[in-house]
Each structure stands twice: as C-alpha cells, then as structure tokens.
Amino acid sequence: MAKKFPITVYHNPKCGTSRGVLEILEAAGHKPEVIEYLKAGWTKKQLKELFAAASLSARQAMRTNVPEAEALLDEKVSDAKIIDAMVEHPILVNRPIVVTPKGVRLARPKETVNEIL
C-alpha cells in the first residue's frame, strides 16, 4: 500500500539515475507522480520555484553534456538566459528533480532522494 506522502518526480525514462530514483521510491512503498518533463516541458515560473526550493542556481541544475548547453557554458551567461534556454530545450535540465513535503532535490546521485523521504 502506497504511503500518504505526495511525491513528484520530474523524470526522463532514458536516464539510469532517474529510473534508479523511481526504484528507490517504489521500494520504500511510495507511488510518486511521474512527470516526463521532456514531453511536458517547463515554464519559467516552475523552474525558478523548483531551483529556489532546491537551493540551486539554474547553472547548477543545467545538463552540460548536451549540444544545447554549448552556448551557455560561459560563466557570463545569466541564470535568466539559462532558464529561457531550459524552457526552449527541456533536455537542458538535469534530472531527476524530486519534490516531497520535506523538500526538493536534484537527485544526483540517486541516493540523495533519501534526504527528503
């Protein structure tokens, strides 16, 4: 039986870490809401709120190993510009981002999710 503990996972099913986080949550008896952000996309407001709650800058939350990140790697590029790019190219957001009543984490490594369970 799933615990009454709302969890949202911003998930990429192609990512091993993201799949691993889902396995940890399900093994602990949780049934998280899974949002495939590559399909759903992001809004600026949503990203700003998630990053603030996780104490991350947009730069810290950015995937840097994808072609879309190349123009954003210069330290002079602002968080606002990075967020604009993340809205346009959802793949730029590192994953998984997990939201629970105890906080928000970019769950990398996957065991980081235990901090908010």
What does this structure look like?
By secondary structure, this protein is of the alpha+beta class. It is built from 4 helices and 4 strands; from the N terminus they run E-H-E-H-H-H-E-E. It has a 4-stranded mixed β-sheet, sandwiched between helices. Strand 1 (8-11), helix 1 and strand 2 form a beta-alpha-beta unit. The protein is globular, with a radius of gyration of 14 Å. The chain starts with 7 loop residues before the first strand and ends in an 11-residue tail after the last strand. The model has no long low-confidence stretch (mean pLDDT 95).
SSE topology:
Elements: E1 8-11, H1 16-27, E2 33-36, H2 37-40, H3 44-53, H4 79-88, E3 97-100, E4 103-106
Parallel strand pairs: 1-2
Antiparallel strand pairs: 1-3, 3-4
Can you give the mean pLDDT? 95
Percent range of helical residues = 25-40%
Label the structural class: alpha+beta
Let me know the largest β-sheet: 4 strands, mixed
Radius of gyration: 14 Å
Order of strands in the sheet with most strands = 2-1-3-4
Ends: how far apart?
16 Å
Annotation, overall tally of beta strands: 4
Instruction: Quickly count the helices.
Output: 4
Shape verdict: globular
What is the H/E string? EHEHHHEE
